[in-house]
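Entry type: protein chain
Record version: 2
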Amino acid sequence: MIARAARYALLAAALAASGCMNKLGGANDEPVQTFLLDVNQPAAITAPAGAPVVIVAAPQVRAGYDSPRLAYTQRDFELRYYAHSEWADAPAAMLRPLVVRALAATGRLIPVVTAVNSAAPQWQLGLEILELRQAYAAQGSEGRIVLRAELARVDQPGAVRTSEFSAARAAATQDPYGGVGALNAALGEILRQLAAFVAAGVTPAGP
């Protein structure tokens, strides 16, 4: 019991030092740290002629994650935000191009973000960010992401495939930088799963 209390005390001190909690005095003068949602991805592979065209719609976002504020939790049901750390843009805006790059790397389809006459899309990919946070516990913290995907035929609105992807990675340090690193690592895994899901859904199965 005493050891657990000590761990929580150390965690609270780390959070306070990283700007999670409001401070008095000169807290408002501290510079804001700005972070990117980004992952290393394979290069795009040119899809064969006649490959399915998939339009990637602007992602939707669950309440609480719809702004550049960097979210974290210390207990269930309570979402908090770092005072001096934020995303460079709204998470949905940063996610969309990453999804396009992940799909392009499959070499099995052509991802687009707008419908053009030369590449009329046959499929639409809808996305929703359900969770994007650094979750603290007594033993440390981890970055957690949950993403819902909906793949639909443009000419057949009722033909829909849905799936939910989730991943969590331990943070190397108990601060916003460590949390962002963990979130990007988790996102890399989700993008690989998402790309496989979409490629399998829009291309015919082999013999």
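Comment: The chain has three helices and nine strands.
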